[in-house]
Amino acid sequence: MGSLPLDASSLRPLDPEAFSGESRAVVNFLAEYYRDVDKYPVRAAELEPGLLRKVLPEAAPENGAPLEDVLEDVRREILPGLTHWQSPSFFAYFPMNASTAGFAGEMLSAGLNVVPFVWAASPAAAELECVVVDWMGKLLGLPQSLLFSGGGGGVLQGSTCEAVVCTLAAARDRALARLGHENIMRLVVYASDQTHVTFQKGARLVGIPPSNFRVIQTSAASGYGLTADAVRAAVDRDVARGLVPLYLCATVGTTGLGAVDPVRELGEEARRRGMWLHVDAAYAGSAAICPEFQDHLDGVELADSVSMNPHKWFLTNMDCCCLWVASPRALTSALSTDPEYLRNVGTGGGGTEEPAAVDYKDWQIPLSHRFRAIKLWVVLRRYGAVGLRAHIRQHVTAAKWFERAVTVDERFEVVVPRKFSLVCFRLWARFPEDDAVDDLNRELLAAVNESGQAFMTHFVVDGKFVIRLAVGGAMTEMKHVMDVWELLQGKAEEVLRRHQI
């Protein structure tokens, strides 16, 4: 990592000429990386903790170094230790999309580096956010009541985790305003056993005791969706004990299986008991821009809040989470601060023809706020609804192909019917005990991931270890899905041969 030190006296952190040259160097570096990303092992070959500490100095350098030296260190020391999320053979977790438009928007966001946490701090940035969340809501088929144009509104959070904490806080304060703050220990949150664990974390963060979080069991009979009957039974038990139902989560596209909860039925149950209904569509919400998937959001007009992540499957670089609320006042009253130095000057809102300014500091956990709106706006402008629908549909088509391939191979089985672009399957052999089948699948998944040719993750449902293939990478095409199926077949043959099956 040796290099000639830079002259500190000549350091100009934002010199336009240096900015232009060095930015081009980074873009060229990334272009080379994307050209070759499929040549890297998808998952880092070495997983031993502490490897990077062995090659990097123990302290920060005293002198600066030329950018070319820094980039060479990235190439040599950093890239080999990454899991390459943008590899076309990355099928783990859910996708974390990137695109040229997303990167261009990210560059504009980082380059302009404005902070629209209050309207006056950057009016056009705050107003662009209002525009793009309404655009997104209309694309998903959300009701007018969740849009700024209909009295609701939206914000671009960093992640679903942040959105969950904000809506839980809003639900909590709405309930305690009626009950009194001393009754917080009576509040109960409901979700299914397929709901993302972030809701349990969020409930704890807003003061709901873990003993008041209800994880309601689902089953194959409902496609692992949460049923209104199960919620009703759990709520009735709690009400009989003097507890207060607070918040119900309905998920459209669960992490493990892609399951879909019946939004309308759950919404009606939430209304009956005065609960806040949140619809979590972090992954599958992107698919709702296609008319053929919008029925999964049937009943969303009953929701108090809805969230989805464009950074998952919508070609928008991390981080970007859309959160819509039916009552902005419920959200902002739980999150607002109003010190003198943050009060707006010259904002509108005095009459019906002049819209009120939006201070996004009151819609989120942190005070500061990145200019995420320009990134999502560039993606929407660059690709349009037609291009984005094509992106979603090509992955769904590839997942359908994979599901059919698994179905016709007698060595494998599809564990649950495919949802969206997620296929859950396992290697199956006629063993008398499920544990033996689970061990085979653990061995198969490890063999595939250790090959470096693909990366997948697993889930456990009804005690069964299953392998997840999530199609959705920006660079993933049908040929990559066909390649991973060929890889799976070859590794399965090796595993079965070792066990003499």
From TrEMBL:
Matches recorded under PANTHER family:
GROUP II PYRIDOXAL-5-PHOSPHATE DECARBOXYLASE, OS10G0400500 PROTEIN
Q: Which family does it belong to?
A: Belongs to the group II decarboxylase family.
Annotated protein name in UniProt: Uncharacterized protein
- Sequence positions bearing N6-(pyridoxal phosphate)lysine: K312
State the Pfam families in the record. Pyridoxal_deC
Q: Under the GO molecular function aspect, what terms does this record hold?
A: carboxy-lyase activity; pyridoxal phosphate binding
What is any one of the record's Gene Ontology cellular component terms? cytoplasm
Which species expresses this protein natively?
Panicum virgatum (Blackwell switchgrass)
Look up the record and name the cofactor or cofactors this protein needs: pyridoxal 5'-phosphate
Which InterPro entries does this one have? Aromatic_deC (IPR010977), PyrdxlP-dep_de-COase (IPR002129), PyrdxlP-dep_Trfase (IPR015424), PyrdxlP-dep_Trfase_major (IPR015421), PyrdxlP-dep_Trfase_small (IPR015422)
What processes in GO biological process is this protein linked to? amino acid metabolic process; carboxylic acid metabolic process
- Which keywords has UniProt assigned to this entry? Decarboxylase, Lyase, Pyridoxal phosphate
The domain of life is Eukaryota
